[in-house]
Structure formats: structure tokens, C-alpha cells
Fold:
Amino acid sequence: MIIIGIHMSEQKKWLVVPGPASKELAASITKDLGAEPIGIDAKIFPDGESYLRIMSDVRNKRVAIVQSTYPPVDRHILQLLLLAHKISEDGGEVYAIVPYLAYARQHRAFLQGEVVSLGVFARLLRSVGVRRMITVDIHNVEGLGLFSVPAYSVSAIPLMAEHFGKNYRLNRAIAVSPDFGGSIRVEAFAKVLNIEHLALQKVRNKTTGEVSFEDIADRVQGRDVILVDDIISSGKTMELATVRLKDYGAKRVFAVCVHPLLAGDALDRMEKAGIEDVVGTNTIPSPVSKVDVAPILVSHLLTL
Ligand code: R5P
Structure:
């Protein structure tokens, strides 16, 4: 106990910087962490450039910048880089909390000549003095390997499952991933609720090239289905999966995602497909951001 006491008192205090993209989440993290908030002055000039000023002394402090990189993606990235640069220049130890990590879907070159955008983003973060990067449910954990500073992905999936358990009365529920790549995610979700799970397998017709899903009527007929994905962008993945699940006799379909990007008419599209409700987290502010990720980020920060 005494050793822990000495260790804790030697820890530098946390300061939390609310990036312009994540003011509310930063306030939640600051409160849960018992940290000092830092005021920043942030403006956008008429020509679109960002102006940023840090209003506190950061020298020798551990400074967590909370800045999600949802659209406008490149502006939010640049604001994060500008803040990190200034804080490290002034002697602060910079931790970048990037709840939604943009470009994570481009973590490798899928076609010859493609830019590995996440790799460039990672190098930029390091070049402005970021010491550690923490995100939530990175699209593919392989992406963490592109960072030359320690990089972590914490998972909001258990919190989302708990939210479902508390707020919905479900009938013979089954959790379904709309693609095979989400198998581990859907398994983690189902485990918390103690329900069955499966990942949809795409089947391509070799003659027409048309994509469909394998027949899973025996698994979903008459049941409530919770579709679990990391991102909803256009909503087309959820739409297609819902139409198929209903064809196979699913009763009600719910959609869960960590990062509700909700580009364009995504919400309308999903409503028209017959989705009962959409639940996301506040890594991205949106009308469906019902689950607060502050507790998992704070738990992680307290281990550092
Ligand atoms: C893809 O691999 C991701 O996990 C999501 O399924 C995808 O980003 C969703 O995109 P959209 O909503 O545009 O179909």
C-alpha cells in the first residue's frame, strides 16, 4: 500500500485538452479522471484555416488531447496535429486520445500504388511529439502496428452490450456481424449478453458476380437480431444485411455500431430497411450516440 502511495504521488497530474471535435467527451473524461480541464481558444477563419491557442501552462504535465477525427476528417486531423505540436513544444507530455481514428480502413495497400493513409497519419502524430495514441475499437488491430509510439485500442463493445441488456426487452436474441471480419467483435458482444452469435458469410455467384448471404433462416427465423459493426458510414451494409435477415424470417432487427459516421442519408436508409433502432457511442457526436466511452478511456489512462 505504501509503495503504491509513493508511486501515485510521483505521477504527474493529468491535464485534458478538449479538441474542437470532442468537447463533450473531453468534459466527461476530465470529470471521471478528476483532472484539470484546459481552456483553448479555437476558431475557423473565413478561408477555412484553424486558429488554436492553449490557455494554460503545460510544462512538465501529462496532457491528454481528446480529438476525434470524424468529418471534416482532414480539418480534425490538422487541429490535433497543431495542438500536439504546441503542447510538446511547451514541454508537455502529449497523449493523443483519438476516439474515432480516421483512415483506419486504409491500414494496408489493397491495390498496387495505394497510399497506406493510416501509416502517414501515424508518422505525423509522432513528428509533432505525440508520445502515445489511444483509440476506441480500431477497425483492424493490424493498424496499431503502423505506430512507432505505443498505440492502444480500447473496446466499447462490452459497454454497448450492457446498454442493450439494460434498455431493451429482446425475444430469443441473436447477435449478428454483417461480415466475417467482425466475428471477434460480435462474439464479444454476445458473450456479455449470454446470447448466440454468428457472422454473415457473403456468397458470390460465379456467373453473375452478384453478392448474397448464405442461407441462415434456421438461425434467425422469428428471433430478434442485433447487427453489430464497428462503423456505420453510408448505412448500406446494415441495409443489405437487414433486408436479407428479414427475408430469412428475422422478427426485429437492431443496429449497433461503435462509430456512427452516418454519412448522407444513412439513418433514413436504415429506417426504410426496417431497422427498429440504431445505437452508437459518442466517439462521434450524432443522434444515436447513446453510449459514453469516457469510462473505458479513463480506465485505460489510469493504467499509464
Ligand atoms: C467495413 O469493413 C466496416 O466494418 C463497416 O462494415 C463499413 O465501414 C460500413 O460502411 P457502410 O455503412 O458505408 O456500409
About this structure: Residues 1-9 have pLDDT under 50 and may be disordered.
